[in-house]
Amino acid sequence: MLLCIGPEGTGKTLLLRRLANLTKPDINLTTVPTVGMNITTISQGPDLPPISIRELGGSMAPIWHSYYGGVPKVMYVIDAVNLTQLGEATMLLMDLLSHPRLRASQCTV
Ligand SMILES: Nc1nc2c(ncn2[C@@H]2O[C@H](COP(=O)(O)OP(=O)(O)OP(=O)(O)O)[C@@H](O)[C@H]2O)c(=O)[nH]1
Ligand SMILES: [Mg+2]
To answer: In sequence order, which ranges of the chain are alpha helices (DSSP H)?
Structure first.
């Protein structure tokens, strides 16, 4: 299962909802902060298996590492327009990239 993480309010839930509903233009744009996790299944078409992505809320950043075991790919989402959050986003990304559990599984971020 893939992991989708990033600081609070960067648009992870909305992005995954969009990816899961590419053929439906009118998705609900209202979200609530993810407390815990959301699992989204994204179809890849008739010949490929669906992908499951686990989103962890930004408020869970201190325990994101508990979910790194065996993860082949991480989607790290930032809000590039939110300049006040970029410092935090960078620090969390550095923690992520240097985490031994992800390095051991040769995870792609
Ligand atoms: N205009 C605009 N608003 C967005 C976009 N992505 C997210 N939002 C809004 O930003 C707010 C937060 O989005 P979420 O998708 O809940 O953010 P999140 O990263 O899942 O947040 P946490 O679960 O708290 O970590 C919501 O009100 C969204 O509707 C975008 O691309 N454009
Ligand atoms: Mg969310």
So the answer is: 12-20, 86-97, 100-104
The reported pLDDT for the residue numbered 45 is 86
| Ligand 1 mean position, distance from CA 32 (Å) | 8
106 contacts: CB under 8 Å, gap ≥ 6: none
- The structural domains of the chain, ordered by start, are 2-104 (3.40.50.300)
Average pLDDT over residues 67-86: 96
Which of 13, 34, 35, 37 has most ligand 1 atoms within 8 Å of its beta carbon, as the pocket-test mutant? Answer: 13
- Identify the CA nearest to 67 among candidates 55, 80, 58: 55
85 Cβ below 6 A of ligand 1: no
Q: Distance, CA 13 to ligand 2 centroid (Å)?
A: 4
Task: Please write the tens of the pLDDT for every residue from 32-69.
Answer: 999 999 999 999 888 999 999 999 999 999 999 999 99
